[in-house]
């Protein structure tokens, strides 16, 4: 390590054993000194020859570093005056000061970011509750399918088929709406399985349903517009609408889903409403036909929009699949959002939105401004997966598996926890909600369970307002019979541990 104090410069530190070349170290040093204000505009720097001599290094890396700094506009040269810090670098900008023990500029910036001005929307997003303790791959993780039952052999053959010899155009830019054959396959599936009425031109393939919600919020909602959401509801939908600047109206749900009369009473002028009518997230009820009609009438009368999130309707165990709300809509007021995260796997990041025809140009423009289009390779693979029958077969198998897992979970809860956990919701999906005894702190229970390797989501995080009853959301899709039994035992111990 060589340290050379210069009369007008703070010490330059060069590490000749470092992997970073010396010219790069010099370049970084000068750039940082200029950015944080240690070197001022117009200030002269040593000639390359002098600096090389001071540092006892060859002149070549110094020349290279100066050349780069000149090219990027940090330095300028004048005949007769040598090299200086560029005079055009603003001198009056408020610069972070490096305190004692603070070594690098970027770390300092990151630490200070909370103090600097960011958008009100970003502030609202960062204030949403985080549940970092749930980031464990333990039993009951919500939204996790049975990944060990996924037909990886078939999937990898299809991936190889399309990546070994890509068809023409596949590696270039694609359509913002998505790969047409996939949209046709999705359209057929939605028509047959979900009674959705659309043609492929209305289907946009998205990067998961989260992007579908984000684009929908961006297209339909202006900052300060009011948007109804279910209480309790899906936290990520809340995020999407907050990110668009919406004012959220939490509307309670009961046995028939969202209480539509109450919503109309509180937010008659709302721009939009977000609902999960087939399988309310997280409580699990189905919205009644009367409420569906009431909501559609409200949307038509007020020129408002209904965002239908149909995220796991493939899995109903006790009854036939529930038809979509979109299929009842005669005035093109419903935006239907779906996902492959539950029926395939979340990392695929493929979802879809069925868009009313007149909104298509706005959705395309919003998509162009976002990530342009979804990965073409996975769209091609997904198309073959559906067309060759693997999709329908996988859903059939998973439906049986999840039905068994749900029954095993309910049985284990009843046998081991008795009245301490009250299961609610329909026999459907990949998760269930269960209420804790009055007064229990579900976040504390969830944290205690996480310490035993269990991922139980607190129900309270799905509410905007404080509630009298709390509970847990338990995913069983990715949790096998043994893990269910063991997981409920540990959950019970966690709850009891908090009581004593
Ligand atoms: C209500 C709801 N909608 C949508 C999704 C799927 O989201 P994505 O497609 O972004 O993975 C989930 C997953 O947990 C969900 O619970």
Offer a concise description of the structure.
Helix content is 40%, strand content 14%.
Task: Please give a handful of descriptors for the protein shown.
Aspartate Aminotransferase, domain 2; binds pyridoxal-5'-phosphate; 500 residues; disordered N terminus; 16 helices; eight-stranded mixed sheet; four-stranded antiparallel sheet; Arc Repressor Mutant, subunit A; Aspartate Aminotransferase, domain 1
Number of helices: 16
- Spans where pLDDT lies below 50 across 5 or more residues: 2-7
Radius of gyration: 29 Å
Could you say what the CATH architecture of the largest domain is?
A: 3-Layer(aba) Sandwich
Q: What gross morphology would you assign?
A: globular
> How is the biggest beta sheet arranged?
8 strands, mixed
User: What bound compounds does this protein have?
Assistant: pyridoxal-5'-phosphate
CATH superfamily of the largest domain: Type I PLP-dependent aspartate aminotransferase-like (Major domain)
CATH topology of the largest domain, anyone? Answer: Aspartate Aminotransferase, domain 2
Q: What's the number of extended β-strand segments?
A: 16
Strand-residue proportion: 5-15%
Structural class: alpha/beta
Level of helix content? 40-55%
The CATH class of the largest domain is: Alpha Beta
Number of domains: 3
- Give the termini distance in whole angstroms: 59 Å
Mean pLDDT: 91
Please give the order of strands in the largest beta sheet.
5-12-11-10-9-6-7-8
């Amino acid at each position: 390590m060589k340290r050379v104090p210069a009369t007008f410069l703070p010490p330059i530190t060069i590490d000749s054993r470092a992997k970073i070349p010396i010219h790069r170290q010099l370049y970084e040093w000068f750039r940082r000194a200029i950015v944080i204000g240690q070197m001022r505009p117009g200030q002269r720097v040593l000639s390359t020859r002098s600096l090389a001599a001071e540092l006892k290094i060859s002149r070549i890396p110094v020349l290279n570093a100066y050349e780069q700094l000149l090219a990027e506009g940090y330095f300028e040269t004048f005949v007769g005056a040598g090299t200086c810090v560029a005079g055009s670098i603003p001198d009056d900008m408020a610069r972070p000061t490096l305190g004692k023990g603070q070594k690098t500029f970027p770390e300092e910036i990151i630490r200070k970011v909370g103090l600097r001005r960011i958008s009100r929307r970003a502030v609202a997003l960062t204030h949403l509750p985080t549940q970092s303790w749930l980031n464990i791959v333990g039993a009951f993780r919500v939204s996790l399918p049975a990944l060990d039952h996924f037909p990886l052999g078939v999937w990898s053959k299809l991936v190889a088929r399309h990546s070994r010899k890509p068809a023409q155009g596949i590696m270039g830019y694609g359509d913002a709406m998505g790969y047409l054959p996939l949209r046709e396959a999705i359209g057929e599936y939605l028509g047959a399985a979900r009674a959705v009425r659309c043609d492929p031109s209305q289907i946009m393939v998205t990067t998961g349903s989260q992007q579908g919600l984000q684009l929908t919020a961006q297209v339909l909602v202006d900052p300060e517009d009011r948007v109804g959401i279910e209480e309790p509801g899906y936290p990520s939908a809340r995020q999407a609408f907050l990110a668009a600047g919406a004012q959220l109206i939490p509307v309670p749900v009961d046995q028939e889903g969202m209480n539509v009369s109450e919503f109309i009473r509180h937010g008659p002028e709302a721009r939009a409403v977000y609902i999960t009518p087939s399988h309310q997230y997280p409580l699990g009820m189905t919205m009644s036909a009367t409420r569906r009609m009431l909501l559609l009438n409200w949307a038509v009368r007020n020129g408002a929009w209904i965002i239908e999130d149909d995220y796991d309707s493939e899995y109903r165990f006790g009854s036939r699949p529930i038809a979509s709300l979109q299929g009842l809509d005669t005035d093109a007021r419903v935006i239907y959002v779906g996902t492959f995260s539950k029926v395939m796997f979340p990392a695929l990041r493929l979802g879809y939105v069925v868009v009313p025809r007149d909104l298509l140009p706005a959705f395309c423009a919003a998509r162009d401004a976002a990530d342009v289009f979804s990965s073409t390779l996975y769209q091609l693979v997904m198309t073959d997966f559906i067309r060759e029958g693997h999709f329908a077969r996988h859903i059939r198998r998973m439906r049986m598996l999840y039905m068994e897992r749900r029954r095993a979970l309910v049985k284990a809860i009843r046998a081991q926890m008795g009245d301490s956990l009250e299961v609610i919701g329909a026999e459907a999906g990949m998760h269930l909600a269960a209420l804790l005894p009055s007064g229990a702190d579900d976040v504390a229970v969830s944290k205690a369970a996480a310490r035993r390797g269990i991922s139980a989501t607190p129900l309270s995080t799905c509410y905007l307002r404080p509630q009298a009853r709390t509970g847990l959301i338990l995913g069983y899709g990715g949790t096998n019979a043994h893990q269910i039994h063991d997981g409920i035992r540990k959950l019970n111990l966690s709850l009891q541990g908090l009581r004593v």
